[in-house]
Amino acid sequence: MVAYMARSVAADGYNFRQLKAAILKLSRATDWETARKEWILTDIYESEEPEECLCGHFPIIEICQIKNRITGHYTDVGNVCVKRFLGFRSDLIFAGIKRVRNDPGKALNADCIVFFRDRGVLNNWEYEFLENTKNKRKPSAKQLATRISINQKVLGALTRRGIRGV
Questions:
Q1: 3-state SS track over 60-89
Q2: The predicted structure's pLDDT at residue 48
Q3: What was the pLDDT predicted at 158?
Q4: Within its chain, how far is the Cα of 132 from the centroid?
Q5: At 50, is the secondary structure helix, strand, or coil?
Q6: How does DSSP classify residue 104?
Q7: pTM for this one?
Q8: Which of 26, 45, 57, 104 is disulfide-compatible with 162, CB 3.0–4.6 A?
Q9: Distance between CA 19 and CA 156 in Å, rounded?
Q10: How do the domains of the chain map onto residue ranges?
Q11: Is 87 exposed, middle or buried (0-12, 13-18, 19+ CB in 10 A)?
Q12: What confidence score (pLDDT) does residue 163 get?
């Protein structure tokens, strides 16, 4: 039974025990529940080359950079682990980015809007505009042009290693 459980932990490629051990080494706290609260999501990026998560999962392309607020350590994890670990739905941000990359006239989702505002990519006016028009199916020509311009700004802020200036 124990051998079966150990195998199933990593059956999907995500080894939570390995992730916990790596995070605990970079944390001041020595217990998991306290240590995980030391960490915040600071950046996201799509890797050009497949990378490996701290949990051992390979390949990952959608990378989340997290920072320990106490120790100052940074590390990268995949979007699945950041969701399991911090409860942060980075998958929704990546989905919003893909949506506007495929069609710049589409609206960013609420998670993207908040994430990019919090990181200084969007100013207050752009944030309010996107919040007020995100559910509009047929924006006016002027609104569509503004939406496309803001979406291009968001996409332009993403670099190979994440958001510039953060």
A1: EEEEEEEEECCCCCEEEEEHHHHHHHHCCC
A2: 85
A3: 81
A4: 23
A5: strand
A6: T
A7: 0.79
A8: 45
A9: 32
A10: 2-88, 102-163
A11: exposed
A12: 63
